Amino acid sequence: MIQVTENASKKIILLKTEDGASEQAFLRVKVKRGGCSGFSYKMEFDTALTDKDKVYESNGAKVVIDDQSLLYLIGMTLDFEGGLNGKGFIFQNPNATKSCGCGSSFAV
Length: 108
Description:
Structural class: alpha+beta
CATH class: Mainly Beta
Shape: globular
Number of strands: 9
Distance between the termini: 18 Å
Order of helices and strands: EHEEEEHEEEE
Largest sheet: 6 strands, mixed
Strand order of the largest sheet: 4-5-2-3-9-8
Radius of gyration: 13 Å
CATH superfamily: HesB-like domain
Number of helices: 2
């Protein structure tokens, strides 16, 4: 299960509108090799589902994760912090054993 907080959901919907993404677009979250801790998160708007995708809807936002990335993200909560000291999207990933200072890469 993947959770999306209300703050993250609002930001996803706002960015989708600003990006000019279609009404059917969803946020795709992937895990890629790389980053200072070994793996990094990648997010993009997409409209094409595959048979290997798992769809999660939370607080009005649709998030899609492929089965390979899901192995590293199961149980994750996606949050968003704005403001002067805000960090942007925050991945609260229970599978990460360590993460870098910027929060965009992790190790398992």
